[in-house]
Amino acid sequence: MNDEGTIRRRPRLKTLAAAAAGVAVVGAAVFWWVVTPPRIDDGGRALPQAADAELVARGKYIAELGDCVACHTTADGKPMAGGRGLETPFGMLYSTNITPDPKTGIGRYSFGAFDRAMRKGVTADGTHMYPAMPYPSYAKMSPDDMYALYVYLMKGVAPVDSLNRPSGIGFPFNQRWTLAFWNQMFLDSHPFVADAGKGEVWNRGAYLVQGLGHCGACHTPRGIGFQELAMGDTGGGGEKFLSGSKVEEWNAVNLRGLGDVDDTVELLKTGQNRFGTVSGSMTEVIHNSTQNFTDPDLVAIATYLGGLPTDQPRAPRPATPDTGVASAVPAAMFTSRGGLAYAQFCADCHRLNGAGVAKVFPPLAGNPTVAAKDPSTLVHITLTGWATAQTQAHARVFTMPGFARLGDDEIADILSFVRASWGGGAAPVTAGEVKAARATLDPKVDTRPFDTPRIADVLNEPNATQLVRGMRLNTETHTLLPKNVGNVLNCSSCHLNAGTVADGSPYVGVSAFFPSYAPRAGREITLEDRINGCFLRSMNGKPLAKDGDDMKAMVAYFDWMKRETKPEDKVEGRGVGKISQQIKPDTENGARVYAAQCAVCHGSNGEGIKDAAGAFVYPPLWGDQSFNIGAGMARTYTAAAFVKRNMPIGFHGGFPLGQGGLTDQEAVDVAEYFSHMPRPDFAPKVNDWPKDKKPADARY
User: Fold this and answer.
1) Closest to 106 in 3D by CA, of 125, 120, 121, 93
2) Can you give the C-alpha Rg of the chain in angstroms?
3) Where is the composition biased (Basic and acidic residues) (predicted)?
């Protein structure tokens, strides 16, 4: 009952002047008939004296089917005690206390009063609720389900003494008596009637979707009275039921003809499937509600949704639908501003081919949100960020940070590229659409002073082809240079987002510091030497020819990043930072941290993870295909500094990768754990310390 219920007035009928007595009598009768709350009928059912464990358990399940907790429990509040805010076009509403507290909750409700509130939107004292409480959907509940829910709320929920908060609804919408007319026009309070021409499974799905699940509250378009244009799939306007709607700058997608039953069941059970991941308020629906549904109920819902006719085209499915793997990298990836921006800001998670990372980051290929006619959800997520639903199947929550730091035109370029590549011909997104959404959402903007270079700007340079080649050699190193890379690493395995992330060894300013004297080597090191050092020491491979086109392309790319940086300049975030060597590592805890935070991307035994085609998505951290002794990752405290600021990704809402977040101790522990694991050797290591002793934290 998502309504604060604090206004206790009921309108009283007043007679008109005697000269209009006839009209007044008729008008008064109609007014009284419409406005006077329907009578309370207990149906012969009273609250049992003792709690019936089986009935309470059934009622608890009904409450999960109806997702009661989502509206009636605040983030830090007691269950069902109300107080959660709901923004409406007319002001703020707050959910009510539906615990059995007799003073502030529903403890004095008879079953008849409860049933009337759930079906007709009228509280025990006759106050009309706003239909933000989805009583038009709950009206379809069977009497037995309604009674089980009543018993659960009265006997299975602890009473909480918590006053309801007054609403922020202003005049004239605070005149609740007018809602009686709304009910007269739009409410059908009769329980669900099964379709005799359909099977038991289909009818069970229809009952849950139309009733307890109140799916239409978000997924059905609304009319001039803010009523759902259809409450079911039959009758006038039935084709509009669940056809999609825009809610608070989210596109609640078209659920009609949703697709494969198994895919829908997996999405409702886990919050993700091979084609996408839920977003927005749907993450709470999954967390609080649908993950707890029985498998037969999930199958029933999926069967019903999949059977609804639709004329809306779906996103084209990937070339290998059994795996969800996209087929190829789009041709425009490296020739357009949107493509290059995608390669910089999105590919580390969603991959160059849009396939995503199974069980971690959603694919874009075949994703219904990408192909939706209304791009609102894409724009919303990009501006404000996103998080996966926390479920029993996926306890770790992964996040996507908001990209509000990017300009409206940049975001429009990226999303237009995404929709052109994987949206089945979906219309491009305009900068105006992004600007309008930004004004409404007012997203938080990252203000770190580090200037993230925009790789898309290389297209403005006369040597754009060479610069793009240099960028690709950085991000696709082991693919484009198989003769020079002896493992499966790319430069971007350490230099995240094509070398543009602060504290992730970004290339901003790197080339300005070369040539430089390296005390360890006892000689001057050029940028070409440093690049080849990575091929030899990190990638277990062979050096590039210093006068070859590939080396020139990489150097040109680094030099382009340098801009006006001079050797003496302080470049914020240029390295990986430092971490105190006074912290003593605990390898047992490091193993636990690795299992909890690292294994999902790098494998439970450091083996990395592959896509369905057998290609590495994220590299191994030990073993034959891992780095050998380069990049400082074979030293505990250097590795810990990198981990502290850059791993894991998707851990929080920080721009641009949600990276970092472990404590200093955790970073040291996990760095000690993985940096001393076996991996390839490097014979010239004997020359590493010509003057001084090797560092105490070096693994060799």
Assistant:
1) 125
2) 30
3) 688-700
Q: Report residue 526 as tokens.
A: 């050029």
CA angle 515, 518, 450 (to 5 degrees): 65
Separation CA 634–CA 672 (nearest Å)? 9
What span, in angstroms and rounded, lies between the C-alpha atoms of 80 and 72? Answer: 5
DSSP secondary structure letter of residue 128: B
Spatial neighbors of 428 by CB under 8 A, at least 6 apart, are: 412, 415, 416, 419, 420
Rounded Cα distance between 129 and 304, Å, is: 30
Query: Half-sphere exposure (CA, 13 Å, Cβ side) for 624?
Result: 0
Buried b (16+ CB within 10 A) or exposed e, 37-74: beebeeeebebeeeeeeebbebbbbbbbbbbbbbbbbe
- Classify each residue of 510-542 as buried b or exposed e, where b means 16 or more C-beta atoms within 10 Å of its C-beta: bbbbbeeeeeeeeeebebbbbbbbbbbbbbbbe
111 vs 117: CA distance, rounded Å = 10
Cα–Cα distance, 85 to 72 (Å, whole number) = 9
H or E element that contains 518: strand 516-518
More confident residue, 17 or 667: 667
Q: DSSP secondary structure string, 339-383?
A: HHHHHHHTHHHH-TTS--BTTTB--STT-HHHH-SS-HHHHHHHH
Cis amide leading into 428 (omega within 30): no
* List of residues 6+ apart from 98 with CB closer than 8 A: 1, 68, 72, 80, 82, 105, 106, 153, 157
pTM above 0.85, yes or no: yes
Phi-psi region of 106 (alpha: psi -120 to 50; beta: other; left: phi over 0): alpha
Q: How far is Cα 273 from Cα 363, in angstroms, rounded to an integer?
A: 9
Q: What angle do CA 326, 348, 488 make, to 5 degrees?
A: 85
CA–CA dist 683, 450 (Å, integer): 38
The residue with greater pLDDT, 693 or 349, is 349
Q: Is 281 helix (H, G, I), strand (E, B) or coil?
A: coil
- Write a three-state SS string for 202-244: HHHHHHHHHHHCCCHHHHCCECCCCCECCCCCCCCCHHHCCCC
Q: Is 426 exposed, middle or buried (0-12, 13-18, 19+ CB in 10 A)?
A: buried
**Residue 571 in this model has a pLDDT that exceeds 80:** yes
Please name the residues in contact with 116: beta carbons below 8 A apart, sequence gap of 6 or more.
Answer: 37, 38, 40, 41, 122
Residue 11: predicted pLDDT: 29
How many CB atoms are closer than 10 A to CB 174?
15
Residue in this structure with the two tokens 């901003």, named with its chain if needed: 508
Q: Dihedrals φ, ψ of 243, to 5°?
A: -85, 5
